[in-house]
Amino acid sequence: MSPVSHSEWDRPADASSPHEGGFRAQIDISTTRGGPRYGELNEELRRLMDLARYACPPEELTEAMIAQVRALNENLAKVQVDEWETPSGTRIDLPSRGNLTLPPYVVTDGGPDGVIADVTFRPFHLGGNKAAHGGHIAVAFDDLGGLASALKVEGVTRTAYLTVGYRSLTPLDTPLQMRTWVETLDGRKAFVKGTLHDGDRLCADVDALFIALKPGQP
Ligand SMILES: CCCCCCCC(=O)SCCNC(=O)CCNC(=O)[C@H](O)C(C)(C)COP(=O)(O)OP(=O)(O)OC[C@H]1O[C@@H](n2cnc3c(N)ncnc32)[C@H](O)[C@@H]1OP(=O)(O)O
């Protein structure tokens, strides 16, 4: 087992891990890493978060659940790898490339002209009043804006700024459509726009700048 070491975030590229600087030189993709049931594990963990977000357990049940979650965490602690080896973020066959920390989305179309994805904010993405938290909406725009700019520049990009307009409430547990595209490409600068719709209703839009990384840039 390799322990997770956040002090190695800028280790140089090598043959077994061909990333450069702080990000991989290329977007790393896989459909097998973590095994055939990795997506199911992610979905159960999301369900755990949904249920935990709204649970109000009596004391004796809290005690039992602490022991159960502790046992689960001990199992997860046994299988830690570093960020370059984890399936999370690489599994293009799974929602949000298998990255549990992102609102789950499925890309239905993607290329240099932009990205279209179905995004569903889960019950645990609650901000208030049954609507999604604005921070989670920004996370979805950041990732799908990053994907649109990466597909345009054919390399890894990093967010320089990201401004979200919250135009109307974003519902939970509802398939929504997110679109992101590069409006203007100026050298390394990809100016990205995006929208989030619930049917015909605009929930949010984004204006962001992503910068293509130079080789070896941390
Ligand atoms: C598919 C996977 C998708 C994943 C997407 C996830 C993306 C992320 O969340 S990334 C994490 C969040 N972002 C960060 O941590 C970024 C931190 N900042 C940085 O690393 C650097 O400031 C970085 C890379 C943005 C720019 O630095 P650097 O590469 O040295 O570029 P630099 O020379 O300063 O600027 C390049 C150009 O961009 C412009 N620029 C840079 N930052 C900004 C900004 N915030 N606002 C406006 N313009 C900017 C500069 O003015 C310059 O313009 P010009 O070429 O016309 O003179």
Shape: globular
Strand order of the largest sheet: 3-4-8-9-10-7
By DSSP (H or I, 4+ residues per run), the number of helices equals 3
Q: Quick one: CATH superfamily of the domain at 21-30 and 80-210?
A: Hotdog Thioesterase
Q: Could you report the average pLDDT, rounded to the nearest whole number?
A: 89
**CATH class category name of the domain at 21-30 and 80-210:** Alpha Beta
Roughly how many Å apart are the termini? Answer: 26 Å
| CATH topology descriptor of the domain at 21-30 and 80-210 | Thiol Ester Dehydrase, Chain A
CATH architecture of the domain at 21-30 and 80-210, by name, is: Roll
Order of helices and strands: EEHHEEEEHEEEE
> What structural class do the secondary elements suggest?
alpha+beta
Bound molecules: octanoyl-coenzyme A
* Helix coverage percent: 25-40%
Estimated radius of gyration: 19 Å
Number of strands: 10
For the biggest sheet, the summary is: 6 strands, antiparallel
* Low-pLDDT residue intervals, each spanning 5 or more residues: 1-13
Question: What proportion strand?
Answer: 25-35%
Summarize the structure in words.
Its EC number is 3.1.2.2. Residues 131-201 form the Thioesterase domain. It is a peripheral membrane protein. The protein is an alpha+beta fold and 218 residues long. The protein has a domain at 21-30 and 80-210: Hotdog Thioesterase (Thiol Ester Dehydrase, Chain A). Helix content is 25%, strand content 30%. The protein has helices at residues 38-53, 59-77, 134-153, and strands at residues 19-20, 23-24, 105-111, 114-119, 126-128, 131-132, 157-166, 176-186, 189-198, 201-212. The strands form 3 sheets. It has a 6-stranded antiparallel beta sheet, covered by helices on one side. A two-stranded antiparallel sheet has the order 1-2. A two-stranded antiparallel ribbon has the order 5-6. β9 (189-198) and β10 (201-212) form a beta hairpin. The longest helix has 20 residues, at 134-153. Mean pLDDT is 89; it is low at 1-13. The protein binds octanoyl-coenzyme A.
